[in-house]
Amino acid sequence: MSCEIVCSSECEILAVELLTGPPGTHGERGEKGDQGEQGPAGSDGVSGTLGNVTGDISQTQGVGTIIFTVVALQGFAVKQQQPTSKQALIYNGAMWEPVTITAGSY
Question: 61 near 50, Cβ under 8 Å?
Fold first, then answer.
């Protein structure tokens, strides 16, 4: 193989890389470094009164928390029953309720 290069220093670097062959394998990974300093403390979150919620959501006060529950979807009641795996909320004409979906059922 012959090669003639007539150009600037960039070409000379390329020529050296072509003549020296591919790079070898990488060495082993070094040890883990020291742990950095602890970051600043985060905010304390929301405080104070959030106000009353109205509409399709009910609100109850827990110990140090406020619990929100969806009681309706667009004004139609949601049945107070915990759904199981592979169930969906279906409107039955009177309310939304969890129903197991099977092939061809809807």
Answer: no
Cβ neighbours of 53 (radius 10 Å): 12
Q: Quickly state the pLDDT bin for 91 (edges 50, 70, 90).
A: very high
96-100 and 72-73: which strand pairing?
unpaired
For residue 105, give the nearest of 90, 85, 83 by alpha carbon.
Answer: 90
Q: Which amino acid is at 15?
A: A
Output Rg (C-alpha) for the chain, integer angstroms: 34
Of residues 95, 99, 97, the one with CA closest to residue 87: 99
Q: How far apart are CA 98 and CA 79, in angstroms?
A: 8
> Alpha-carbon distance 92 to 73, whole Å?
13
Dihedral angle of Cα 17, 18, 22, 24, to the nearest 10 degrees: -40
Q: What is the pLDDT of residues 1-39, one digit of tens each?
A: 455 555 555 555 555 555 666 778 888 888 888 888 988
